[in-house]
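Long-time lurker, finally posting.

We've been working with histidine kinase (Kibdelosporangium aridum) and I want a structural starting point before designing mutants. I don't trust myself to interpret raw outputs, so I'm hoping someone here can both generate the structure tokens and explain anything notable. Sequence follows.
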Amino acid sequence: MVNTCRSVAAMLGFFDRLSWVQRVTTAVLVMAAVAVVIFEGLSVDAVPGAIGIVICGLLPLAALLMSTLSAWVVSGIAAVSIAFTIISPRLPVPPDNTFGTIELLGLAILVVRVVIQFRPLRAAWLTTLLFGAATVLPLRLDNYDRIEYMIAVIVAGMAFLVLLGMYMRLYDRRRSVGFELERQTQRLEYARDLHDFVAHHVTAIVAQAKAVRFTTAAGMAPSPEALDDMLARIEKAGSEALVSMRSMITVLRDDSAPVRPHRTLGSVVAAAAENFAGPPVTVSIDSDLAARELPQETLDAAKHVVQESLTNILRHAAEVTRVEVSAVDSGGSLDVTVTNDGIAASNGLPSGGFGLVGLAERVESAGGHLNAGSTGAGWAVTAVLPSSKS
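Top reply, 14 upvotes:
Generated this for you. Predicted structure of histidine kinase:
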């Protein structure tokens, strides 16, 4: 009784997930199949044979309407079919003109679903049961000529459907793996965006706050003008962090691609460097590069290289007196370099260790590569990016 209730619930769930057009189409096909099964039953002269043909034809139809198959249901259907095939020749009047066409089609479709749905070991023995049940169906007929040819055709057809089910199983697996890879790539992109959007502005806030505390603790209270300037920088960095978060949330909530304004390398580098909370930044860009139209991926990568490099200066460098950002065209590629003359220090700021990793991934996704290391008198980060669309 419990299994019956679960089967009915599975059928209802199956219909709930269909659109009204699919429901109407499914209902019409089911009614047509049931009508054929009943017609096949009426064509049998004896009542026992007619009842067996109808029951064996309706059971696969009921199973096909379930959203999730059960191994017990499939094995039960195959067992009932084989049992009726065994007893058919012993009936007073065996079937003489049909062995169950709809039943054969139902068993064939069940084979495909079993191969797709179940694990290999369970699918193997269930497929064997269904294969055997379908193959021996012609043995129900009484004195039918050349029955061996009919069995050979059924064997070939069932073998083809097994291969079809294996192909569809492999296709579903590949699609699932591809979907997981896409989700992983998307997660990495979100992680990089969160780091780039938030870390830069929050680091500026922390650096400015530490500067105020350091100045005050040293007994050199800043003038009202200097204090107002520091607080204004903190306020501006906080506002920009909120704007960046809103922009990212908007992109995440909206499936349509955002429309980006036309940007040049000069404007991108200037926007990344203008809010730096450390020493003044010297920007040097080749005149022919400043206004040249570059690939969108290159501009995005260049912006993040400058922004992340400046953020790392606040986090990991001390005694910095000079910061330089340069961009040059080196034989068909764009070299963006950020250098400073500081020494390595933690500055008391937290670091997750993912900045350069994410930056390297972003640069590589744009078709370039990233180099970072000591220059002997400071630190340099260089990104080599494509300057033209491939």
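Before you design anything, note these points.
The first strand starts at residue 281 and ends at 285.
Strands lie at 281-285, 317-318, 323-329, 333-340, 343-344, 369-374, 379-386.
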